[in-house]
Every structure is written in C-alpha cells, then in structure tokens.
DNA sequence: AGATTTATTTTGACTATTCAAAATAACCGA
DNA sequence: TCGGTTATTTTGAATAGTCAAAATAAATCT
C-alpha cells in the first residue's frame, strides 16, 4: 500500500528520532531525504492525515504507532538485504546501502522471512546496525564512540554509523570494521584530533566528527 | 533512469511482439498492463518522443533498438530473480512472478550479474522461459504445444507460457512441469478437448486454450 | 523591546501517470 | 457505398510528489 516515497519518509523519521519520543525537525528530515523543506511540510501533512505521523506545526514530526510499525519493517528489509548482498553475493561493503535503498521497497514480507532464515537470523547488518526483529523490536543500546571512549583501553568496534560510500571506504581502508579491536592513544578536544591504533598497526589520526561515527564496546 | 512504469511498458511490448518485427496493437498492450487504452496512447507517445518506441498511429507500437535493449535487460532481471526465488529461497513456483514484477525494477546490473553467477548462469527461468543473455540475445525457438503437437508421441515439456498463479497451480497439481514427459492421447478440434497422459498417470483432459500454453519438444 | 536571522509554511506551478467519457478513424458486412 | 461495429485517440480531470520563491512565525541578538 505505502509507496516507496512514504516508506522513505517514515524510515528516515525513525532514524532521526534516535529513540522514540523526540520530534524530528522538518529541516533535518528535508536534508535526509534530499528534498526542499516545503516538500516535507506538504508530505508530512499528508502522512498526518493518513495517521502515520503526528505533526506539530513549527516544531517537527513524530511517528505514530502505525507509522513506526511500517518504518521498522522497511528498516528490517533494508538491513537484511544488506546482509544478503554482502554475505551471499559478496558485494562491496561500501556499496550495499545504495542497493538496499531500492530493494527495501521491492521485497515482500514473504521474501523477507526467507532471506532472514537463509542468513541465519542475523542481529546486525554488515555495518553493525541492529536489525529490527520481525515483531518490531529494535535494539537501542547506547555505545561509546572513538570520540567519547576512554583512552588507552582496547575496545571492540561494533558499528559504523555513516552509510556514505566515502566514509565506509575510508573505514575499510584503515581496517576500522565491526569486530576489530582498537585503542585510542590520544584525544585533543581543542584541536579536534583523535589518534587511534589497531593492535597490529600504525597510529591513525582522525577528526572528532569522524571518530564519533565509530561505535565501540569494551572487549570481553 | 527509466521509471518502473516505463520499464513495464517496454517489457510488455517486447513480450507481445513475439519476435521482433510485429506492431503491437494498443489494445493488447493496454490489456497486458491493466490500464485503459487512452492511457497507453498517451504513454506510447511519450515513449516515442524519448526514442524508445516507434508509434504508428492507429496501428500499434514497436520497440526501437534502444527500447529493446532496456526491455531485454528488465526481462533478464525478471527471469533471473525468479530463478533465485525458486532455487535459493525455495519459494512457490506459482507465486514468484508477482514478486519478480517488483524486483525487476529494483535490482542493479551489478546485483544482476552476481545473481547470475550465483545461479550458475541459467538459460531458462523456473517456468522454462528463456533468459536473455547479458548481451541481449534472446532464444526465440518455436516449440509445439499440447494443442498442436503430434498425437501419441512422448514429448518433453519445456515451457509454460502463462504466468498467472492460477494456471501455474493447475500445472503443478497435474505434474505438468518443465522437464516432465507427456503424451497427447486424443485431440478433438471440434469439441476443443485435449487429453494428455504422463508416463505414470491417469489421463488428463484440458481445453485447447490451456493446452496451447504448454510448450513441448521431442524427447531426445 | 525592536531588529535580525533562521526555520517552516504557503502558494503557484510542473511532471508523470492514470481514468472517464466523448470524438474519430478504420474496418466490414450487406 | 452506406451504416454499424470496434479500436484508437482526444479531452478534461485527478493524484502523488516535487521545486522556487514569497510569506510568516519563532528564536536570537543587541
Ligand atoms: Mn529507500
Ligand atoms: Mn547498513
Ligand atoms: Mn514490473
Ligand atoms: Mn517466468
């Protein structure tokens, strides 16, 4: 029923509202969807009429329960498709987001379930992003990032939160992949510079913004 | 570039022009696409403007070389996706056409190539329909059907030319699948009745129209 | 408070795709 | 050759989604 435009709006509202409550500003949504703000206002009013979102004029949007259900299903498709593309078709880690952006609207729930089984019910996609369960549960654990973690401690990378091919390529080239172990050796808030080191490797310098996109966890 | 609407128009024109030359009547196209004839006239004129088809007013449409290239690529996607759904995901033979109808517009050429390799470069889809090659070659062999074949001779089913779930379910239930061997024991043009028999099985009666949808080949 | 900047909404217009219904052309039998 | 099907095209209108630019409200800064 929902067009792929509607699915994209709902998915991005979900993604931009980190956990549940918050109102997503219209401008942020416009930027995420690459449309002008006026377009978002128009569409959001339509989505509100169909009961998928709540629109607080001048403040932002938030998903209704119905809208959230749709959004989670689309997100589940997106991430499972990425798993399939990487694990089965051996596609480039950095390229699959673009592919999944289309496929998430084209696969049925039936295909979704079979893909899920084929892949062995994965819990995260290739970038470490959690896959919503078939019943709409989404892991919302908060992780430290290379910009906020303790210094001089070995940490496991769990997730890369930037889907752009450019950033992902940078990550691959420097071995910053989910599962790898790193240690921040230096962090200078003033200069905005973070230095990280993999167990076996030369020190790597990156800016605070980039460091903040790499989520880590204590190694157990 | 081409929207999925455009891709569907081109694909159906290809399908309706059996081999190359013939003009496809506007009405036939309208029926295949499940839109009213006026819509087809409008769209076909637009497709002609963009150089994908040639429109002979009051006579029909035909693909240009450019349009044919697009159509073959979509058809290749459709049929390879069907192979994937049946062979890898073990989906119902009768249901995959509907799924592929969407997926054919969502997968990239890159994914297409990898699927093709994963499947071992199949030559036909699960219904026996030939898969266009990566370079646009489409097998156009003409086969006999249960409505036209010689009587009392063992023949191998090579293809079922009706994508509807209804007909395909009927075919499965009676074991009329590509690869199976059948023999027409009786054919009465006047009554429009054909009786076929599998090696191991009771005689099966079907109408001429249905019989014409089952393509066969001499067993070698 | 008053002026300025910034975010959001409105307005008017455009593209793509579709339908209903009326107009027209082509074909066909008598 | 005329009148009646039948197929196709036209016309007018609708829906979904989008943009540019102007209007407005809210927030921020003297
Ligand atoms: Mn998408
Ligand atoms: Mn991802
Ligand atoms: Mn299609
Ligand atoms: Mn098929």
Question: Structural class of chain A, please?
Answer: alpha+beta
- Computed over alpha carbons, the radius of gyration of chain A is 19 Å
Shape of chain A: globular
Instruction: Pick out the low-confidence regions of chain A.
Output: none
Distance between the termini of chain A: 45 Å
CATH structural fold name of the domain at 144-218 in chain A: SH3 type barrels
CATH superfamily caption of the domain at 144-218 in chain A = Ferrous iron transport protein A (FeoA)
Order of helices and strands of chain A: HHHEEHHHEEHEEEHE
Ligand inventory: manganese (II) ion
> Helix proportion of residues of chain A, in percent?
40-55%
Largest interface: A-B, 18 and 18 residues
Q: Total number of β-strand segments of chain A?
A: 8
CATH class division of the domain at 144-218 in chain A: Mainly Beta
Could you describe the largest sheet of chain A, including whether it forms a barrel?
Answer: 6 strands, antiparallel
> In oligomeric terms, what are we looking at?
homodimer
Tell me the strand order in the biggest sheet of chain A: 3-8-4-5-6-7
What would you note in describing this structure?
The structure is a homodimer of 220-residue chains. With 220 residues, chain A is an alpha+beta fold. Among the domains of chain A are: 4-63, Arc Repressor Mutant, subunit A, CATH 1.10.10; 144-218, Roll (SH3 type barrels), CATH 2.30.30.90. Chain A contains 8 helices and 8 strands; from the N terminus they run H-H-H-E-E-H-H-H-E-E-H-E-E-E-H-E. In chain A, the strands form 2 sheets. In chain A, strands 3-8-4-5-6-7 form a 6-stranded antiparallel β-sheet. In chain A, strand 1 (53-56) and strand 2 (60-63) form a beta hairpin. In chain A, helix 1 crosses helix 2, helix 1 packs across helix 4 (65-88) and helix 2 packs across helix 3 (37-49). The longest helix of chain A has 24 residues, at 65-88. Chain A starts with a helix and ends with a strand. Chain A binds chain B through residues 85, 88-91, 95, 99, 102-103, 105-108, 110-111, 114-115, 118, and chain B through 85, 88-91, 95, 99, 102-103, 105-108, 110-111, 114-115, 118. Bound molecules: manganese (II) ion (MN) (4 copies). One manganese (II) ion (MN) binds at residues 79, 82, 97, 125, 127, 129, 163 of chain A. Chain A binds a DNA duplex (30 and 30 nucleotides) through helix 3.
């Amino acid at each position: 029923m929902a067009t792929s435009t509607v699915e994209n709006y709902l998915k991005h509202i979900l993604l931009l509202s980190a956990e549940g409550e918050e109102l997503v500003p219209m401008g942020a949504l416009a930027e995420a969807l690459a449309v002008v703000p006026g377009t978002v206002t128009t569409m959001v009013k339509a989505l509100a009429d169909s009961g998928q979102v709540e629109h607080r004029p001048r403040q932002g949007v938030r998903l209704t329960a119905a809208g959230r259900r749709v959004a989670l299903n689309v997100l589940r498709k997106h991430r499972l498709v990425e798993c399939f593309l990487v694990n089965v078709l051996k596609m480039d880690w950095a390229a699959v987001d673009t592919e999944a952006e289309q496929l998430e609207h084209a696969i049925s729930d039936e295909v979704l379930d079979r893909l899920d089984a084929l892949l062995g019910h994965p819990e995260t996609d290739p970038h470490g992003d959690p896959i919503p369960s078939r019943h709409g549960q989404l892991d919302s654990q908060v992780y430290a990032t290379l910009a906020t973690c303790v210094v001089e401690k070995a940490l496991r990378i769990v997730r890369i939160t930037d889907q752009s091919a450019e950033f992902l390529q940078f990550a691959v080239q420097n071995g910053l992949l989910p599962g790898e172990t790193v240690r921040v050796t230096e962090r200078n808030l003033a200069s905005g510079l973070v230095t990280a080191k993999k167990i076996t490797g030369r020190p790597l310098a990156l800016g605070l913004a980039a460091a903040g996109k790499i989520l880590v966890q204590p190694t157990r």
